[in-house]
Fold this protein.
Amino acid sequence: MVSTQLLNRVRYTFLLVPLVAALAGCDLSVGNLTERATEEWSRSYPLTAGGEIRIGNTNGRVEVEGVEGATTVEVKAEKIARSATETGAKELLPRITIKEDIQPDRVTVETEKMNGIMIGAAFEVRYHVRAPKGAVVNVTTTNGGIGLTALAGKIIAHTTNGGVTAKELTGGIEARSTNGGVSIDFARLGTERVSARTTNGGVTIMLPDSAKADVTASCTNGGIIVSPDLTLAVTEQSRRRLEGRLNGGGTSIDLQTTNGGVRIKPRQPAEKAG
């Protein structure tokens, strides 16, 4: 005599198999979403000196460039909808919305989350921002990299799946990633703290030869390499951790990674004599 419980399990199994088979027949990878629709979005906002810019994104890269003497924030965004059909892409595009919250001392632009389950479609928004050089910049994205150029104010840059790349900085930065590397290049090192952390990826920092800093670097699976062209007085060193004073010490620099190496090197390698 077959029990009721066993019969229910058998019925459940037969119901589950067609569902799994149906899902297996749907390739949801972006590579098969061959049709796309795009739309350009742009805004300009005044910002007081020393004000803050916040960019929040879900899928897509965010780039912020500092402009000397600028008093406005120029935001350009490219909305991209992908689907297996042209009709599907065009129908998805209007659902990609960008929310604005504008104050004299703060500009907030954010990609709104899309409700519901998305099957056979994908979207992203790519931001390019031109900002006053001294503005405070706060950028977050989930699936996408962050690029920062020629900024002098404090920076917060957080991403989950993507790297953080910063060039020609003169202010402090807090850079975070889970799956991606962090690379920071300083034209001049200021007094604001520098922090770079990632879980899966390397951390590289490039400094002027004359930079004065207190450096702490650590990793779990990977090495720590300091260029011999930098004058670093090591105060503590092991395979996974290093502390030292660069040119006598100064600005706090904290570099951490779990799976990846840490590299500290001069912005422009010194020419070797001879």
